[in-house]
Specification:
alpha+beta, eight-stranded parallel beta sheet, about 30% strand, binds ligand MIG, globular
């Protein structure tokens, strides 16, 4: 087209490369995604190591990386220590629609006058299709014309690719050559199918590729509708100086081509060079931030329903948990709690005294979460509406009027969260004095923020709606929910004068949403297939940087049979965000409604969760500080073991627990892969060493799901569950020390007040390490900078896989005398249990066996 494009390539600190392509002189600025990168990345100098006609080779300072740029055809090859990892545009699919004046404005100029005259009719017709488009009865007028961008990447030696949530799909991304591309376009699809490549609710344009010696990532920073095509094939190995004999022996090596296409914006892509999976997570976090550290209560169990009807209902459900001795932390109110879907208000007939209700919950050491959606009922008497209207805070339609759509309240306008001023104002709505009836135990749930617009094209906002700074909705679509959660989290922080951690659950998300709270997978269905697919879906979200994720336990739509509900609780108890939720039309399903036996099993599952919280909280601290996903596909822990690369029916929780949910009806046994021939695995409940690693057939009953602890790890637990996390503050700890082949184990415990930012500002935390080595278990400090006062003790230690009955066990802490420890040794399981330890969790001590 002769329109000049400008290419920028740079190396970013920490093994990241960035490629940007924009028009050198566009008619108007093209959209560049703001607010997702946490800071302008620090670039590193690249050196020119070769330059000749049409070829430019750049090397990194340490010479580890080389970028070879060729001019014709334009291609870039990225090598790491001589190994080609990634090449760009090798299939020539770079595509860049430059901005043009609208057809009506175009004046034929000198030389093309004649051509223009003869082709003008045809051209106009063709152009028209690019300047407006019909979708059913909806007309999308593209005020700035066509502006799509696209490019292909070849991943050399890779045939396993992951990421780009959210789809109801398998963990391993599939070849899309003969079907739909993976679509990234946030949509509210009620009753969505499983195994579909249409996007649902949220998008993170991050793709990871893995092979035994390397993990790499491609982060395509674009918030418009995006398609990703994937094609994996085997190609002849590339050997520069090949002899005839070598050619004969030539191996086929895998290659994955990934083609990204976006409706608008620029090409801005980050190549995360790993080389390990954990390096890749750090690189992505360096760009988009890490998981916010959740308040401890939010890792407990959440009880939700559309809807808990009124204050009496809330109290009764709350009391039901105590009556049935089931721990829970939070009860949720859906849209029916409001005055006719006016968010930030209460239906005063059903909730006469919301503060009193919250005081009641507070006394029970529990919390409340209420829903706050982004659409605002058109009603001049509704202050939120009239203020936003006056201030011009709503998204506009293409004619400059407030965009109107239908949603729960009927005709509604949509707050323009892309504007910093709107976000500030919105955040202020959460101030206690503004949000009447709210207290500091109230937290927030953002729903419908794709945004969902009933009777809109694909049930969302028109692409030609107009946002802050005149950007069309098409540019910012996938960012809308990200911004709402950002503003909400900010509001909750601000109402506490910066002291308390927020909790905000969002349905729509984008790269970086991890900084603002939790996400869930939306409206799943109460069927076995949805329980099964929830595992790869959550793993994919976790890989994309969002550790705090979960799926509606029980399945939102429909009524689960009791067995499915039980299995879902057992799975959810070992997943990051754990909430039971159900649709308006679904029957009530509080955990005690399915007979004594099922109540007992669900109670046990939830208690297991509560007992495990010290471990889970520590994992979240690792996610927060080191970008390690809480819930992990097996291949991350076993990067060299090809048999793990496609596993999605089980997963690791941290590095120590392997969880295999039961997702089949009436299962009598499940086939579990315990990877690593050199690993030792222990049954987490029976505390017994598994005979052999590998694929095992494990008998199951309805009582629980298979969970295993990996040898070489120490897991901190509480000795028992309580009514909620706050009731458990003083309960003592128990350590499960699982020995590896060297009779060694190591693990950590992080703890703090569980709710404030003091861990950050005042360094009020404890970060402890437990090491088992040469028959000595020692407790030491991992981070000397942290201090936290607690009287909590380690009460019990169980050493799994301990070779023989010891004769004598002693414990000694720094300034105390040695004391003898009471122990029992189970010769059948080889588990050694040390009791009545009373060793302060805050102190250095040793136990000698
Ligand atoms: O489509 O607020 O995904 O969790 O209960 C219904 C009512 C709208 C969708 C959410 C669901 C919530 C429901 N909302």
């Amino acid at each position: 087209s002769q329109v000049l494009l400008q290419v920028e390539i740079c190396e970013i600190e920490g093994n990241i490369f960035r490629l940007k392509i924009d028009e050198a002189a566009p008619l108007r600025a093209r959209y560049k995604v703001p607010d997702v990168l946490i800071k302008e990345p620090t670039t590193q100098r690249l050196f020119i190591s070769q330059k000749e006609a049409g070829i430019l080779v750049l090397s990194s300072v340490n010479k580890d990386y080389k970028l070879q740029v060729t001019a014709d055809p334009f291609q870039i090859e990225l090598q790491s220590k001589g190994e080609t990892v990634l090449s760009m545009n090798s299939n020539g699919l770079l595509y860049f629609e430059h901005l043009q004046p609208p057809p009506s404005d175009r004046r034929p100029t000198g030389e093309n006058k004649e051509a223009a005259a003869s082709d003008s009719f045809k051209e106009k017709q063709e152009d028209l299709g690019l300047w407006q488009e019909k979708f059913g009865s909806f007309l999308d007028i593209k005020a700035h014309g066509p502006s799509s961008v696209g490019m292909d990447f070849s991943l050399h030696g890779f045939d396993h690719v992951y990421g780009i949530p959210q789809h109801t799909e398998a963990l391993l991304l599939k070849n899309t050559s003969d079907g739909d591309a993976y679509r990234l376009y946030n949509l509210d699809i009620f009753g969505h199918k499983i195994h579909d490549k249409i996007g649902v609710y949220g998008s993170v344009p991050l793709l990871l590729a893995h092979k035994p010696n390397r993990t790499s990532g491609i982060f395509w920073l674009n918030s418009s509708e995006t398609l990703v095509d994937i094609s994996t094939k085997a190609v002849a190995e590339h050997m520069p100086s090949r002899t005839a004999a070598e050619t004969a022996k030539q191996r086929a090596v895998p290659l994955t081509d990934v083609r990204w296409m976006s409706e608008s914006g620029i090409i801005d892509v980050f190549m995360l060079m790993g080389p390990t999976a954990f390096d890749t997570f750090k690189q992505f976090a360096q760009l988009t931030g890490t998981q916010a550290l959740p308040p401890l209560f939010s890792l407990g169990y959440h009880q939700c329903r559309w809807n808990y009807e009124d204050e009496q209902d809330v109290m009764a459900v709350d009391a039901g948990f105590d009556e049935h001795d089931i721990p829970y932390d939070v009860i949720w109110l859906d849209i029916e709690h409001t005055d006719d879907k006016r968010y930030f208000t209460w239906d005063r007939k059903k909730f006469q005294n919301p503060r009193k209700m919250q005081e009641h919950l507070r006394k029970k050491k529990r919390k409340l979460v209420v829903i706050v959606d982004p659409h605002i009922k058109i009603d001049p008497t509704y202050t939120l509406y009239s203020q936003a209207k006056d201030k011009g805070y709503f998204v506009k339609d293409r004619n400059g009027q407030d965009f109107e759509g239908i949603c729960w309240p009927g005709s509604s306008c949509y707050l323009d969260f892309t504007s910093p001023e709107v976000r500030r104002w919105y955040a202020d709505q959460f101030a206690f004095k503004t949000y009447k009836g709210s207290t500091n135990i109230l937290f927030v749930w953002n729903d419908m923020n794709e945004p969902s617009v009933f009777k809109g094209a694909e049930l969302t906002m028109q692409k030609d709606a107009v946002h802050y700074n005149n950007w069309e909705h098409r540019e910012v679509h996938n960012l809308y929910g990200f911004y709402q959660q950002m503003a909400t989290a900010e509001g909750l922080i601000r109402r506490s004068s910066g002291k308390e951690r927020p909790f905000v659950l969002t349905r729509s998300f984008f790269a970086g949403s991890q900084k603002y709270g939790a996400v869930w997978t939306g409206d799943n269905t109460a069927e076995w297939g949805y329980l099964k697919i929830s595992i790869p879906m959550l793993l994919t979200i976790s890989l994309a940087g969002i550790s705090f994720c979960g799926a509606d336990v029980g399945g939102f739509i429909g009524d689960p049979e009791p067995e499915l509900l039980v299995r879902w609780y057992q799975a959810g108890a070992y997943q990051p965000f754990f909430r039971g939720h159900s649709n308006m039309e679904s029957k009530r399903r509080e955990p005690w409604l399915f007979g004594e036996k099922n109540t007992q099993i669900i109670r046990e599952a939830i208690r297991e969760r509560y007992v495990l919280l010290p471990y889970l909280y520590t994992l979240f601290y690792r996610a927060h500080t080191a970008a390690e996903p809480v819930m992990r596909p097996l291949w991350i822990e076993f990067p060299g073991k090809i048999e793990t690369f496609g596993v999605e029916n089980e997963y690791m929780l941290g590095n120590a627990l392997l969880v295999h949910p039961v997702t089949e009806q009436d299962a009598k046994a499940v086939s579990v892969l315990l990877p690593g021939s050199e690993e030792i695995w222990y049954d987490f409940r029976k505390l017994k060493r598994m005979e052999n690693p590998g694929t095992l057939k494990i008998p199951v009953t309805l009582e629980n799901i298979p969970v295993f602890q990996r040898g070489g790890t120490v897991i901190p637990l509480k000795t028992k569950a309580g009514k909620s996390t706050e009731w458990m503050m003083d309960i003592s700890y128990e350590l499960h020390v699982a020995l590896d082949t060297e009779a060694y184990a190591i693990g950590e415990l992080y703890l703090d007040d569980g709710h404030s930012f003091q861990y950050l500002h005042k360094k009020q935390f404890l970060y402890r390490k437990f090491t088992f080595h040469k028959n000595i278990l020692s407790s030491s400090c991992t981070d000397e900078s942290g201090q936290y006062r607690t009287t909590c003790v380690v009460e019990r230690v169980i050493v799994l896989g301990f070779g023989q009955q010891p004769t004598f066990v002693t414990a000694c802490s720094k300034d105390r005398k040695e004391k003898e420890v009471v122990f029992t040794y189970d010769t059948k399981t080889s588990a050694l249990t040390l009791e009545n330890l009373a060793l302060n969790v805050n102190a250095d001590w040793e136990i000698c066996i």
